[in-house]
């Protein structure tokens, strides 16, 4: 067998095994019935410490981590490392936000952020708006995962769209059958492959001259680069775009629907707290993988057909033994399919609970809700393909950043609403729509440029707006999502003050202060805990505050 055949064989065998594991997940910790969103959509809210850890890592640290970030570092250098401080910032924020989110959702049985918005601000219209925004924002994030899988296929020499389509169909069937249990179980296998991959990378770098050689090679390449935006250090004025990307991405991650899905699957508040406290461990892997962009430059790797998303898979092909490269491809492939599955489930839950049940079938049974979510989850993955076809950004990471611009506009209702109900429901809707319009308009103004500065496309070339486009004499750029969010918040505050002055009735808040500290019922747990998590220890009080 040739080296290429070995790579394809190992990759196909491992990916096939992962898909079979996803099919069997329907029998793992099997409930009486999967025909409800409680079971199909959030795993019965029964996952303990270990399963929650793997699920959160699998859904939050995605192919974005293993393909998009090192590709950006390869292309522009230091600016690509914005993902590392962004990930570090999310850890303390996750501890504060996720625990309150889990508690209030547990107290009221929410499975989506839109349901929380409806209860908190007493507006099903606002909830529907949040749901639609979340669904639209999720599509480009799923697209990032599909682009990563496509990059692996390109590196293996498998051309055409059919391999990607087959993989998406198989993953969709797993999700359709097993719900959240499929990505939860696959996340465990994915992290085993990830640990192996990290160790292989460390050994490879050590045997290839270390990081100093990689940085020397990268420095030489960037010195000769004609692009003013690339380099081992941030370019002039680059710190503005860097910091706004970090802050905007950190705020956006908690508004994404799939972030809530992984949190709600935890069996109690303490499980959420422990996992939020341990998440920084993944930042180590993220920093190491990001530096693969520099290492690829030092090794003289060239992307397949000029597609920068293939840099990491091509690096594996050139420096790993064939069998080892096949395992690495499988790790990336599973890292793409798991979050795509969780994201499609989250989008489906939003549609079912805040649109279908609210407006189309108010009397829908739990079984009907689960059936609708199953079908919508299939459509969500194929909807992501539209973004791949309509948009052609230079870096796949731009898909995620464009989604961030959109989902950031739900932060006042979804995130700030966890602490205050002062905002008026109409003001939140006005701010959200104003923020979306602003974000889309600013992205329309952004041209796509070639490395030498030539304009390739006049519009929708990324998410960082050069301030020169607004008439400022500077090379600095700002993340458009943060500009749109600032306008959003200004509208929310101003309109809230106006409506309160006019004595326009606000919606009724259905939550109580104690709900944000609620814990799981401690006697006779509703769900059996087996396999990795062990039995649930009894606690005192159904809503014990922590």
From TrEMBL:
Membrane topology of the entry: Multi-pass membrane protein
GO MF assignments: transmembrane transporter activity
Signal peptide bounds: none
Keyword Membrane among record annotations: yes
Keywords assigned: Membrane, Transmembrane, Transmembrane helix, Transport
GO cellular component: plasma membrane
Subcellular location as annotated: Membrane
CDD domains, A to Z: SLC5sbd
Transmembrane as UniProt keyword: yes
Start and end residues of each stretch annotated as Disordered: 527-546
Superkingdom of the source species: Bacteria
Main location: membrane
Assigned protein family: Belongs to the sodium:solute symporter (SSF) (TC 2.A.21) family.
The protein, known as: Solute:Na+ symporter, SSS family protein
Record organism: Catellatospora citrea
Highest classification ranks of the organism: Bacteria, Bacillati, Actinomycetota, Actinomycetes, Micromonosporales
């Amino acid at each position: 067998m040739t080296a290429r055949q070995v790579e394809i064989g190992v990759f196909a065998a491992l990916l096939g095994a992962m898909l079979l594991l996803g099919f069997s997940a329907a029998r793992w910790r099997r409930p009486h019935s999967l025909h409800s969103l409680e079971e199909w959509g959030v795993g019965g809210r029964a996952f303990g410490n270990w399963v929650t850890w793997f699920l959160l890592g699998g859904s939050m640290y995605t192919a974005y981590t293993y393909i998009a970030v090192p590709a950006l570092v390869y292309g522009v250098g230091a600016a690509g490392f914005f993902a590392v401080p962004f990930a570090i910032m999310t850890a303390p924020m996750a501890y504060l936000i996720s625990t309150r989110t889990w508690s209030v959702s547990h107290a009221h049985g929410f499975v989506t952020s839109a349901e929380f918005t409806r209860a908190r601000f007493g507006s099903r219209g606002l909830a529907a708006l949040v749901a639609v925004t979340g669904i639209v924002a999720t599509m480009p994030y799923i697209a990032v995962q599909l682009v990563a899988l496509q990059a692996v296929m390109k590196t293996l020499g498998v051309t055409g769209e059919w391999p990607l389509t087959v993989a998406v169909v198989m993953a969709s069937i797993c999700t359709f059958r097993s719900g959240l249990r499929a990505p939860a179980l696959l996340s465990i296998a994915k992290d085993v492959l990830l640990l192996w991959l990290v160790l292989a990378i460390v050994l490879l770098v050590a045997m290839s001259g270390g990081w100093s050689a990689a940085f020397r090679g990268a420095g030489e390449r960037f010195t000769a680069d004609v692009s003013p935006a690339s380099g081992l250090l941030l370019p002039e004025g680059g710190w503005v775009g860097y910091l706004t990307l970090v802050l905007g991405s950190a705020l956006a991650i908690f508004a994404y629907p799939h972030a809530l899905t992984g949190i709600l699957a935890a069996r109690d508040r303490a499980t959420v707290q422990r996992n939020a406290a341990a998440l920084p461990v993944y930042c180590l892997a993220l920093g190491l993988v990001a530096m693969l962009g520099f290492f690829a430059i030092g090794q003289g790797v060239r992307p397949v057909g000029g597609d920068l998303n293939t840099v990491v898979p091509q690096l594996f092909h050139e420096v790993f033994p064939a069998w080892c490269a096949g395992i690495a491809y499988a790790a990336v492939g599973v890292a793409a399919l798991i979050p795509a599955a969780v994201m499609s489930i989250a989008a489906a839950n939003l549609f079912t609970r805040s649109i279908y049940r609210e407006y189309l079938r108010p009397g829908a049974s739990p079984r009907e809700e689960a059936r609708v979510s199953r079908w919508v989850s299939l459509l969500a993955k194929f909807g992501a393909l539209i973004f791949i076809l309509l948009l052609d950004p230079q870096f796949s990471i731009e898909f995620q950043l464009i989604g961030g611009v959109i989902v950031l506009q739900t932060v006042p209702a979804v995130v700030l609403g966890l602490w205050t109900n002062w905002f008026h429901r109409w003001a939140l809707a006005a701010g959200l729509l104003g923020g979306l319009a602003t974000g889309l308009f600013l992205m329309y103004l952004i041209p796509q440029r070639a490395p030498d500065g030539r304009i390739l496309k006049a519009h929708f070339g990324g998410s960082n707006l050069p301030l020169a486009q607004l008439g400022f004499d500077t090379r600095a750029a700002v993340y458009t999502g943060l500009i749109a969010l600032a306008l959003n918040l200004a509208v929310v505050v101003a309109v809230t003050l106006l409506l309160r002055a006019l004595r326009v009735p606000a919606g009724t808040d259905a939550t109580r202060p104690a709900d944000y500290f609620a814990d799981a019922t401690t006697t006779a747990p509703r769900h059996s805990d087996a396999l990795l998590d062990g039995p649930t220890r009894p606690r005192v009080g159904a809503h014990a505050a922590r």
